[in-house]
Amino acid sequence: MDPLPTTPARADVLITSTGNGSTRRDAWQPPPGRAESFLPADLRAMLAALRRHVWVIAGLVAGAVLVAGYVGFLRQRLYRANAVIRIVDTRRAVAGKLGDEDEGRVGETADPFFSQLEVLRSRAVLGEVVDSAPILRLDVRGLAAGDLGMLGIAPDASADTIRLSFTSDSVLAAAGTASAAAPYGSPLALGGVRFAVAARPPEPGGRLVVRGREAAIGSLASQLRLQPRENTDVADVYFEHADPRVAQAVANRTVTVFQSRSADDARARARYRRQFLESQLDGAARGLAAARGALERFRGTQHTVSARDRLAAGQSGLGDLQVRREELAAERRVYGEMLATLEKAGSAPDSGAGLQAALAVPGMAVNPVVASLYEQLVRYQASRDSLLGGRWGTATSHPDVVRLTNLIGATQGQLVRVVRGVVTSLDVRLRALDALRAQNAEALQRLSAAESEETALTESFESSRRLADELQGELQKARLEEAVQAGPVEVLDLAPLPTSPEGLGGIRVVLIGLFGGLLLGVAVSLVLEYLNTAILRGPQLESVLPEPGIVVIPPMPRGPRTRLLRRSGSAGGHSSTGRSAGHVRRRSRAPEHSLVMLTAPLSPAAEAFRGLRTRLVFHAPDREFRVLAVTSPMPRDGKTTVAANLAISFAQLGRPVLLVDADLRKPMLHRLFGATTEPGLAALLSRRARLEEVVRATGVPHLFVLPAGRTSGSPNELLGDGAMRDLLESLRRDFEIVIFDTPPLLAAADALVLGAVVDGSLLVVRAGRTTHDLVCAALRQLSDLRVPLAGAVLNDPDAKVKEAGGYYSYYAYAESGSS
User: Fold this and answer.
1) In sequence order, what are the beta bridge partners of 489?
2) What DSSP line would sit under 584-596, residue for residue?
3) Who contacts 439 (Cβ-Cβ below 8 Å, separation ≥6)?
């Protein structure tokens, strides 16, 4: 049957009957999730959850303690030796920082400190350590490593096992077919291994397991630890071994080998660099001598110190000539323009303005002849103008005016001739300067070729000299570096002898495992508790009920066996039933221990059933539950046991009680009471038997049982027929309490069919098995069909509900006190 959803889309309504036959509506809304957080909310609930998973916690604690015990006591304890080194360029510091110039460029992309640490991890360095510490290639068994002396292993020795036997005065060694013997304290060689045993060990024999060189290097690499110290150039070198002396020796040997190898490598590089610089310096010296000789020979052929100086002087003179010519050319242009102006003005007496303009050209006043003639011309012009001007001026024909006019013309002609002579002189000087400049240019061209050759020879000489000087300086640096004995590795501290093994002691490790397992167990228990959706506590069940209040049934103890079916007499002594001893078909079998109301009447479980009886009778005065159906969400929730014990509790009040097995699919009451199955309820409803034929009296006064019987049709249709209503009316007249044991709600619809005709249904939930979703689905079905709910029982046969333990203990105390 498909499970129904636990969260309805609307508010469900539960219809319950009242004492006057009317009904009232109780709203029931399943919670939108879990019925409260299954993760414990308080300390008591948390402790209860831990008690429910006590075996999980115990198992995890035990496992953690076992693991911790192995780690703390059985695992081999290792001793750690710690040496301290410093990675610094001691050679450069001693040599005044005279080192390779390329080192600075390499440092831009690589850290020299970590580069040196990687060199320490290299197989070349570790191989040298292994070769110098043969103990790394031996696994000594049967004697201590310190008992071996004069130890040496050939690098090419292969992996082998040497068996040792210790006699009173000598050591016997065997490896394969080879063997050897030697007295104590004397060396013994076998298979590339040489050793000596100082004294007879307490063991009768031992073994030396020889590892290959590469395997020993790999083992050393895995056991060696390098730890740089932050913001320093210092690093710690760790090595762990079962023997503290071996750990100390290997750690110290590693750093000393690394230091020595680093110094040797640095000196080898310096030596190679020195040799290279010496060879280069020889070639540079020969090149310098050749360049010096060529330059001296060139200067000897030129009869001068330097062709460059002569070229410079010639270039300077040529420049002066060029400047002088430009000055003469400028002066020639001035006088040429003046001459053109004077010739244009002519000898006219009224050409004074033109002459003044011509003589106003810059540079005219420089020539004294021109200046004198110009002044004379100006005086003549002024005299003539004074004679002709004014109120009483003379005529142009006046002899004085004529004389001055002639003087002016003659002066002008003389001035033109002087200027023309100056121009001619300047032209001659210009031609002479041009000829001289051409000669100088030709001489400079010849000097230029000589200067280029001298320049090339001088540059070759200077280049050879600079190269020789640089090589000489680098050679001096290389000699200083080669002379320095220190390397880039400085050993700050050698490893002391370790006094205690690494890690915590065995007791501490076990305690840590104990607490760790306990914490893990608690965490796992809480996670399992959170993931478990089964009902484990009373408040979880109450939170989904329409009305709070439940009864918890604790585990049931086993009790004595009792006969339940009566052999003869009336059915329980109740006259209204009219039953006789003939109704009893056969004796019952021994009862099950689940009938706790008979087997352990003073037990907590029996008291819980009495509490359930009291709750049904007195909890709601306006309700009367005479006909009650006991059901559960799923099979094996304990509804049959609850129905039987509840019926016995009512019968012990002296009321006639009928217990009906309405589970026609899987009946169980006949086994519990040892009754026959036929005829039963199925025969009664199909009208194949009468009521007095199917009701059995039991060994419990006032308690009768009606078995289910066998049916060939549909149990649901048989229970829903009108015959069931007629039967209920008859049973109400003959019995005060009628209890139906019905099938599970979610397995079949029979309980819903009966629930519609009885006074109420009692829902039985098994703690630790029935989930929250199943309970909500069962309540949803009851609500949809308006089946009244008489109450709920949390059945706890497996002691899952620990929160009620105090009450159970109280009841158990009362029981023991009464015995």
Assistant:
1) 87
2) --SPPPPPPTT-H
3) none
Rounded to an integer, what distance in angstroms lies between the CA atom of residue 119 and that of residue 265?
A: 11
- Alpha carbons 109 and 175: distance in angstroms, whole number: 53
Q: Rounded to an integer, what distance in angstroms lies between the CA atom of residue 509 and that of residue 525?
A: 24
First to last CA, the chain: 49
Q: How many CB atoms lie within 10 A of CB 549?
A: 11
Distance CA 449, CA 379 (A): 63
Cα 213 to Cα 193, 194, 222, 248, distances in angstroms: 13, 15, 14, 21
The whole-number pLDDT of residue 236 equals 93
Give the strand order in the sheet containing 760-766: 551-553, 789-795, 760-766, 627-631, 737-741, 657-661, 703-706, 696-697
Which residue carries 């219809």 as its tokens? 15
Q: Is the pLDDT of residue 569 over 60?
A: no
Strands (E), 67-146: 79-87, 138-141
Residue 636: phi, psi to the nearest 5? 65, 25
Residue 357, φ and ψ in degrees, nearest 5? -65, -40
d(CA 221, CA 357): 109
Q: Which residues contact 265 (CB under 8 A, 6 or more apart)?
A: 487
Do 326 and 316 form a contact (C-beta atoms < 8 A)? Answer: no
CB distance 62 to 520 below 8 Å: no
Taking Cα atoms as reference points, which of 10, 12, 11 lies closest to residue 781?
12
**SS3 at position 79:** strand
Orientation angle between helical segments 307-345 and 352-359, nearest 10 degrees: 170
Question: On the CB side of 700, how many CA atoms lie within 13 Å of its CA?
Answer: 26
Residue 79 near residue 240, CB atoms below 8 Å: yes
The three-class DSSP label of residue 159 is coil
**Are 430 and 328 contacting, i.e. CB atoms less than 8 angstroms apart?**
yes
H helix intervals, 546-665: 596-599, 604-618, 639-651
Q: Please provide residue 262's backbone torsions phi and psi, each rounded to the nearest 5 degrees.
A: -65, -40
Instruction: Please give the structure tokens belonging to residue 53.
Output: 């998973």
pLDDT in tens, 593-634: 578 888 888 888 889 889 888 888 876 566 678 888 898 888
Q: Are strands 703-706 and 696-697 parallel, antiparallel or unpaired?
A: antiparallel
Cα angle, residue 415 at apex, residues 409 and 420 outer, rounded to 5° = 130
Contact yes or no for 251/83 (Cβ under 8 A): yes
The pair of structure tokens assigned to 802 is 């620990």
Dump pLDDT digits (tens) for 138-174: 888 877 777 788 888 888 888 888 888 888 888 898 8
641 vs 593: CA distance, rounded Å:
10
Inter-residue contact 702 to 651 (CB < 8 Å): yes
Let me know if 621 is exposed, middle or buried by CB neighbors in 10 A (0-12, 13-18, 19+): exposed
- 463-499 pLDDT, tens digit each: 888 888 888 888 888 787 777 666 788 898 999 988 8
What percent of the chain shows pLDDT beyond 90? Answer: 5
Instruction: Pull the structure tokens for residue 389.
Output: 């001007």
CB 636 within 8 A of CB 769: yes
Which amino acid is present at 381?
Answer: Q
- Give the residue-averaged pLDDT of 725-741: 88
Write the DSSP string, 290-345.
HHHHHHHHHHHHHTSS-HHHHHHHHHHHHHHHHHHHHHHHHHHHHHHHHHHHHHHH
